[in-house]
Specification:
The complex is a heterodimer of chains A (597) and B (337).
Chain A (H helix, E strand, L loop, with lengths): L1 H20 L23 H10 L15 E5 L16 H10 L4 E3 L6 E3 L2 E6 L5 E6 L6 E4 L4 E4 L12 H12 L8 H4 L6 H6 L9 E5 L2 E5 L7 H4 L10 H7 L15 E7 L3 E6 L16 E5 L3 H10 L4 E3 L5 H6 L1 H6 E14 L9 H9 L3 H9 L4 E2 L14 H7 L5 H15 L11 E4 L3 H18 L4 E4 L2 H10 L4 E3 L9 H9 L13 H12 L3 H18 L3 E13 L3 E2 L14 E2 L2
Parallel strand pairs in A: 1-12, 16-17, 16-18
Antiparallel strand pairs in A: 2-3, 4-5, 5-9, 6-7, 8-9, 10-11, 11-12, 13-19, 14-18, 14-19, 15-19, 20-21
Helix pairs in contact in A: 12-15, 18-19, 19-20
Chain B lengths: L1 H28 L13 H10 L6 H13 L2 E3 L5 H6 E6 L7 E6 L11 H36 L4 H15 L2 H15 L11 H31 L2 H8 L4 H29 L3 H6 L6 H9 L3 H29 L7
Antiparallel strand pairs in B: 1-3, 2-3
Classes of the chains: A alpha+beta (597), B mainly alpha (337).
Chain lengths: 597, 337
């Protein structure tokens, strides 16, 4: 009798256990043990990484030898989209790709100058069209061997070490341009290499592309025209050497730890998708002027939300983390944490565009009225408080060739409710209206993010207060918003830009030229187009700066095609004793990091 | 019984067919595509990508291709091929002289994580969710059932009120509050358990508790209500009139019959909880399936949406079938023949 009871009382538990613990019960479930050839063997990394996460710098290591220096950090939520140089999508991907696959040159974080990374030196022909890179000759391809726990050189079929050659760079560049790769960054590279745009569009032949391996360690690129920032372009994300043999053998999945081949200062030790990635020092990287040999042996990167990252930081299980903007006030008030907080000016600009083809914003006075009545300082200090910097110009001041912050401030004192009202009156007169109530209904469109909704509501309130105009807010799903924007940007819609390369050309010409695909406000100004076209090929820095200052003023003040509001900040916490870089773009240079205590 | 199970499996395929068609049509009807981005791609690049992923084909062709890739197995020689290993969910190496490999179920690539396939996601991330979900179900049952039984038997006593207060609290405090509270108390302050991460048993405790507690409250209340109802039935009075010991009345007659509603809710619960929960996985930084149900839809990652939805449908149908079988066991009056 009691037997029946026992059966019943444990019944559910048994059912649950059976369902939970018997993967074979689910037909879609086929873990490695049922599929001998699958073998997506996770290297030992996950179990090794776990104890390390507990004790950041005192990871258990075999005694005697010097203990490896290990650090743990939060690096944003979700898996990176790709660490394949030619298919990486966002800035975080790029930062990781830089660890594994250095370009010919790399930008110095402080000076912004390009320094040799994979190249030893380079020269440019007198006409500025032919770039010849002399590569380091002793950089082997490497991979992490999970069995030995060591980073090893990659051997070819004959057993000889594979060194990174000019041909690997030609392959990498060509792979970026190959239409079949579908590289999201191809359009950046294509205009600056002879024949590349045609090849990428599928109309030109591979042989006509201006890339050449002169000899084993000399790589040559030919540009169709002389531009000042060509070298920056040849160092962007997809301009890397890539291992042809691995990609041909493993297809799209070649970036897994078992198959990836790299050559940069760090190699990929493990990658628990959606959880952690472990970088291990590549002892074969010889070091160069731009990328020295790393000092930290292992870096565990956790893919967790920044809110969770902050808690992990306070618990001591990560050494650095990005901080959610709404926590900054609390952190600043904390005596210990405020010391560890750094707010780095970012490179992304937040701007809201007017659609200059839609009434009433086809009228420049109405645009100016809206633009002049936005108090950027109040928005940044009272609403956002996440380390943003109030802005007027589209290109952030740190970008070489862009107007400096003081220039921008001198140029315009934009917030001016009186002037805004004057402009509004002029605009209404132009349109033959007597009061703002006769204006067409105005909608403010933006995608789905907490920050955007705060900005949207603030703009709405400022316009109501300063102009007496009530605008409607339409906040929609991001993907729906983006696809709508491609067809037809709303009357006022959220714009903004994160750069692909560090030059005002990328902020201004690539976005607001009348024929740019990112010109969602359909602004068309011949003077602006002329200025940025000329500045693009101008070699005198003083003249170039003058042109860009004029162009910026036209864009964001005189013509008010867009309202530049602020530059995003990157608030981060770092534990004491970890010397690190603070990259404005978020592409950290881990090889410069050091644990000092 | 065997016939019943077979019938249910056949029904499952019909359900999966309908679910897949509806999902397929819906996801393609939503504005925006997998390559719609804040920084839009040039038209030429977009076209190349669409061609690469067969997205330029008519919808019905895309659907048929998708189903064909899942259903039709392929046979390859034994040469090592990492690309195919990742592509297919099931790769069985035969022990013949050519080392033939039978590969089955290609759920397509992920458009968002471009170097991964949906099969990779199932292989790497689903077991994590199942382990977490299994642990959470144990928490649910070990807390919910005893609480419900005790308060049902001692109705309107202090024990009952206390147990039900706990249950109400459990239902009312959402995991989005409970999770961070647990993290803060035990992770940040006490430093007993890790705040986030995955791999060891210690990583499992907080999330399993956070995830299991809300459902345990539901189970407790349901058990109580059901037990009370059964206890007022005639056959219980008869049992008591016969002079059976109270212990036997409760455990043999009442409890068994009161389990039916609990089993009913457990079916869908198993499916939900084993396929991953977005909130708990995000809060605790757990690499489970849950996030894919959300990120795939916001990112229009078509193959991942299809994979996740089909996976959930299979779990749901199987869990419900299991529930139906348990009914027969619990109540001999129930029959499906």
């Amino acid at each position: 009798m009691s037997k029946v009871f026992r059966v019943l009382s444990t019944l559910i538990v048994v059912v649950v256990l059976a369902a939970a613990c018997t993967p074979a019960a689910a037909p879609t479930q086929a873990p490695a043990e049922t599929s001998p050839t699958t073998a997506p063997e996770q290297p030992a990394a996950p179990t090794e990484a776990a104890p390390a996460a507990e004790a950041p710098t005192e990871a258990p290591a075999p005694a005697a030898e010097t203990e490896p220096v290990v650090i743990n950090g939060q690096i944003g939520a979700n898996d990176p989209r790709s660490i394949d140089p030619q298919r990486a999508v966002d800035t975080r991907d790029w930062g990781l790709v830089n660890q594994f696959f250095p370009s010919m040159a790399i930008q110095d974080l402080e000076t912004g100058e390009l320094e040799p990374a994979m190249a030893e030196s380079w020269e440019v022909s007198d006409d500025g069209l032919v770039f010849t890179f002399h590569m380091m000759e002793n950089v082997p391809w490497v991979r992490f061997n999970a069995d030995t726990g060591q980073v090893e050189e990659v051997k070819d079929d004959s057993g000889a070490t594979r060194y990174v050659t000019a041909n690997d760079f030609v392959y990498g560049f060509m792979r970026a341009l190959n239409p079949e790769t579908g590289s999201p960054a191809a359009y950046m590279l294509a205009p600056y290499i002879v024949g590349a745009a045609e090849y990428n569009a599928g109309t030109g032949a591979a042989e006509d592309v201006g890339l050449r391996a002169v000899d084993e360690y000399t790589f040559e690129v030919t540009a169709p025209e002389k531009v000042g920032f060509a070298l920056a372009i040849y160092s962007i994300i997809n301009s890397k050497a890539t291992p042809q043999w691995e990609i041909e053998a493993s297809g799209d999945s070649w970036t897994e730890p078992e198959t990836i081949n790299t050559y940069g200062p760090y190699a990929l030790k493990g990658w628990e998708h959606e959880a952690t990635m472990t970088l291990i020092k590549n002892p074969f990287w010889p070091g160069s002027e731009g990328i020295q040999q790393p000092k930290i042996d292992e870096i565990n990167l956790k893919f967790i939300d920044e809110v969770v990252g902050l808690r992990d930081f306070e618990a001591g299980s990560v050494d650095w983390t990005i901080v959610p903007g709404d926590q900054i006030a609390r952190l600043k008030a904390d005596p210990a944490l405020s010391e560890q907080l750094a707010i780095v000016p970012g490179v992304c600009v937040q701007a809201w565009n007017f659609n200059t083809t839609k009434p009433p914003f086809d009228n420049v006075h109405i645009r100016r009225a809206f633009n002049y009545s936005v108090d950027r300082n109040s928005l940044v200090d009272n609403v956002l408080t996440g380390g943003q910097t109030a802005a007027v110009f589209y290109t952030p001041p740190g970008v070489p060739g862009a107007p400096s912050a003081t220039d921008a401030a001198k140029q315009v004192q934009l917030y001016n409710p009186e002037k805004a009202k004057e402009e509004l009156a002029l605009g209404l007169a132009d349109l033959g209206l007597t009061s703002v109530s006769e204006l067409p209904a105005i909608t403010l469109e933006f995608g789905n993010a907490a920050e955007l909704s705060a900005v949207g509501q603030t703009l709405q309130a400022m316009w109501l207060e300063n102009l007496g105009i009530q605008v409607e807010i339409a906040q929609i799903d991001n993907t729906v918003y983006w696809s709508k924007q491609e067809e037809d940007g709303g009357q006022i819609h959220r714009g903004g830009w994160c750069p692909d390369y560090n030059d005002p050309n990328n902020y201004l010409r690539d976005v607001y030229r009348s024929d740019s695909i990112y010109n969602y406000g359909k602004w068309n100004n011949a003077e602006f187009d002329r200025l940025i076209d000329e500045a693009r090929v101008e070699t005198d820095p003083a003249k170039r700066l003058e042109m860009y200052t004029q162009a910026e003023t036209l864009l964001s003040v005189e013509d008010s095609a867009t309202m530049v509001l602020y530059y995003a900040g990157r608030p981060q916490l770092t534990r004491p004793g970890l010397q690190r870089t603070f990259s404005p773009a978020g592409t950290e240079y881990f090889w410069d990091w050091e644990v000092t205590e | 019984m065997g016939k019943f199970v077979i019938r249910r499996i056949l029904w499952m395929f019909l359900v999966l067919f309908v679910v897949s068609v509806v999902t397929f049509l819906l996801m393609h009807a939503v504005p925006g595509g997998p390559f719609t981005a804040e920084k839009r791609l040039p038209a030429a690049t977009l076209k190349q990508l669409e061609a690469k992923y067969n997205l330029d084909a008519p919808l019905h062709i895309q659907y048929v291709t998708y189903i064909r890739d899942i259903m039709v197995p392929v046979v390859t020689d034994g040469k090592k091929n990492a690309a195919l290993d990742h592509k297919y969910l099931i790769n069985i190496q035969l022990k013949d002289e050519k080392n033939t490999v039978i590969r089955w179920m290609d759920f397509g690539p992920s458009f968002r994580n471009v170097n991964r396939t949906v099969s990779d996601i199932f292989r790497d991330n689903l077991p994590v969710s199942m382990r977490l979900g299994g642990a959470a179900l144990l928490v649910t049952m070990f807390i919910g059932l005893p609480l419900g039984i005790v308060s049902g038997l001692k109705r309107n006593s202090l024990v009952d009120y206390t147990a039900m207060a706990i249950a109400v609290l459990g239902v009312s405090v959402p995991v989005i509050i409970l999770g961070p509270l647990l993290q803060y108390a035990l992770g940040v302050q006490a430093k007993i358990l890790p705040v986030s991460g995955w791999g060891d048993f210690k990583h499992l405790i907080l999330p399993a508790f956070a995830l299991g507690i809300a459902d345990s409250a539901l189970v407790a209340r349901l058990t109580r209500a059901s037990l009370l109802e059964v206890l007022s039935k005639d056959y219980i009075r008869t049992a008591r009139a016969k002079g059976l010991a109270e212990r036997l009345v409760v455990f043999r007659h009442a409890l068994r019959n009161s389990l039916i509603p609990i089993i009913t809710v457990t079916g869908p619960m198993i499916a939900y909880i084993l396929t991953g929960t977005f909130v708990v996985e995000t809060i605790f930084g757990i690499p489970g399936m849950g996030r894919f149900f959300v990120t795939s839809i916001s990112g229009r990652d078509y193959p991942v949406i299809m994979g996740a939805v089909l996976l959930f449908a299979i779990f749901l149908v199987l869990a419900n079938t299991l529930v139906d079988i348990v009914y027969i066991w619990l109540d001999p009056r129930i029959s499906y023949e």
